Amino acid sequence: MERTVALPYYTSSMDIHVAEKNLETVITAKLDEYQPGKTESELVREALEHPIGTKPLRELAAGKKKIVLVTSDHTRAVPSRITLPLELAEIRRGNPDADITILIATGLHRPTTEEEQRRMFGDEIVDNEKIAINMPFESDQFVNMGGLPSGAEFHVNRLAAECDLLICEGFIEPHFFAGFSGGRKSILPGICAAETVNENHSYKAIASPYAKTGVLKHNPIHEDMVCAARMVNVQFILNVALNAEKKVIAAWAGDLEQAHEEGVAFIRKLSQCPPVTGDIVVTSNGGYPLDQNLYQSPKAVATAEACAGEDGVIIMCCSCVDGMGGTHFAELIQLGTPEEIDAYLAKIPPKETIPEQWCPQIYARILKKHKVILVSTYLDPETVRRCNMIPASTPDEALAIAYKIKGKDARVVVIPDGVSVLAVAPQ
């Protein structure tokens, strides 16, 4: 007898077949079981009507001249086709003549194309609204607003710094070094200059014992992010929770921290589950858009790490349809052995942090203990090998390789969507 489990992969899925005698467990978040009893639009409207810790958005917008609405880029599944029209309508209820700019938070990612904007926002918004894209390496886009708790300088997009009302939208899920996504993360790294993002993601910050999934207290990365969002005066956020189909199942609006905290409590309750140790741990990055490049893939690999014991094999399904995802990352991840990569990065002072170095740092940490088999039909096998991983074209091929490493009686843990699961023991 064998069990078939579907693993999200690009815009579809891939199946893995595991013999019942080997299958230890399948770990999924309860998000997919949650039934809100309302449509996606109803949930968002309700959140906007009943903000947490602030006045309604229409009241905040009254009398404001320049309004900036920060949204996520093409690497995130924010349901902007639903959220943006409702937010824009709410702003214009209070201020019909508002000068509104939608600012796409790229962090250090490449610019979002017009085609991607149309897919994310819809033609109506692309054709009729003012849209700007954060360009982290163009210094004239930014203003220096002072120092953050870590000592990093806070260079933020000029549009956000000079507006009368700053609003952010996003979604909340476990995040492997910021604790959770959403809220303050729209500002840092979203609309900051490269130097600010880099220092926030320095070797020292990433190596902190508090910089991990589900942890906000004492997390230096989170603390810088909150400080940055407060310094630039984020007055209103709209954050949502999504299920595996990227459908809205809950929404929160209002104060930067209060609304985010309520969302985090909801996500923690539905995504947290105790880690189950396996000899082989199988996961994915949740499909598109997060699995479009290798740069994003440590998110799920870090979840698998929590279940892989001291030397378990990790199987990661990630399409990498967009390739490696960053030139600095591509160079650093192919620099040498995991030990050599880690030693090289450890010597880099925070203010000299290389863009994207956090990703090879986390991979090096994991690869020093675990063999990682990468299932990708878009990344060529030789590149995968240079990244210190083992290439495979299907989950079943990867499982066969893993059995050769760990033995035919190896216990297998499957986490279909490694991004949505918070695999930590209850506190």
Q: Mind explaining what this structure looks like?
A:
By secondary structure, the protein is of the alpha/beta class. The protein has two domains: 2-27 and 276-423, LarA, C-terminal domain (2-enoyl-CoA Hydratase, Chain A, domain 1, Alpha-Beta Complex); 40-270, LarA, N-terminal domain (Rossmann fold, 3-Layer(aba) Sandwich), CATH 3.40.50. Helices cover 33% and strands 24% of the residues. It contains 16 helices and 20 strands. A six-stranded parallel sheet has the order 3-19-15-16-17-18, sandwiched between helices. The chain has a six-stranded mixed sheet with strand order 6-5-4-9-12-13, with helices on both faces. It has a two-stranded antiparallel sheet with strand order 1-2. Helix 1 runs parallel beside helix 3 and helix 13 crosses helix 14 (358-367). The two termini are 37 Å apart. The relative contact order is 0.16. The mean pLDDT is 96.
CATH superfamily of the largest domain: LarA, N-terminal domain
Number of strands: 20
State the shape.
globular
Regarding CATH, which class of the largest domain? Alpha Beta
Quickly give the CATH architecture of the largest domain. Answer: 3-Layer(aba) Sandwich
Summed up, the domain count is 2
Largest sheet: 6 strands, parallel
Low-confidence stretches: none
Alpha carbon gyration radius: 21 Å
Beta-strand content: 15-25%
Average pLDDT figure: 96
> Cα distance, first to last residue?
37 Å
Oligomer: single chain
Helix content: 25-40%
Attribute tags:
2 domains; 24% strand; alpha/beta; 33% helix; 2-enoyl-CoA Hydratase, Chain A, domain 1; six-stranded parallel beta sheet; Rossmann fold
